[in-house]
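Lecture notes, part 5. Sequence design as translation. It can be helpful to think of inverse folding as translation between two languages: the language of shapes and the language of residues. The source text, in structure tokens, appears below.
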């Protein structure tokens, strides 16, 4: 059975040091991070395979799904728990055909609700909107208004993930607007205490004002 996407959604930094990466992700998982996405746009194929395989083993130790960013072949090869697709990363239909019905497939919809509605119709398990704030990972990303989360929760029946420049200082606004999950890279993995930071992010989803 697929795990529903919610809570802290950790996206890995592009570190070539696999041991460092695994140690950082372990700390995040120890703080009940709910999902991990492996994102590596610049590493060679061998490094990507090594890191993704090791992360999958680690995530399964904690019972947390590992999603592969933008690489259908890698997701299929290591039998990852799912795939995340961007605008230019292949079709949802093809990914579902190759990965099968039991894998999690998410789709980046940026600031477009129509894209999200279409993704849900074609079988996406969750959609991601952003960038809500200035992002060091994607500085040229198109801004998304927070009102989009309200509208998405009204129109969609699948989880909604917020992404882009999210920090402990601004995440509350997104959770209150209805985000089921918040995707974080820098604010988590660049922090001095990854475990403590992950715990603080997860606490946001336990407050009474969190809209389900």
């Amino acid at each position: 059975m697929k795990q529903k996407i919610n809570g802290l959604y950790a996206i890995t930094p592009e570190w070539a040091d696999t041991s460092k990466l695994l140690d950082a992700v372990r700390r995040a998982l120890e703080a009940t991070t709910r999902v991990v996405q492996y994102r590596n746009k610049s590493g060679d194929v061998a490094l990507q395979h090594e890191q993704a395989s090791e992360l999958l083993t680690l995530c399964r130790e904690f019972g947390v799904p590992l999603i592969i960013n933008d690489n259908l072949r890698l997701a299929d090869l290591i039998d990852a728990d799912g795939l995340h697709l961007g605008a230019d990363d292949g079709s949802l239909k093809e990914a579902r055909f190759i990965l099968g019905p039991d894998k999690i497939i998410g789709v980046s919809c940026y600031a477009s609700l129509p894209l999200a509605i279409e993704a849900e119709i074609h079988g996406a398990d969750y959609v991601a909107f952003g960038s809500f704030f200035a992002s060091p990972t994607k500085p040229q990303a198109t801004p998304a208004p927070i009102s989009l989360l309200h509208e998405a929760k009204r129109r969609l029946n699948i989880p909604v993930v917020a992404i882009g420049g999210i920090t402990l200082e601004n995440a509350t606004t997104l959770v209150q607007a209805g985000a089921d999950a918040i995707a974080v890279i820098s604010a988590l993995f660049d922090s001095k205490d990854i475990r403590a930071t992950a715990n603080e992010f997860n606490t946001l989803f336990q407050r009474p004002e969190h809209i389900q």
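The translated text above is only one of many valid answers, since several sequences can fold into similar shapes. The first helix runs from residue 18 to 30.
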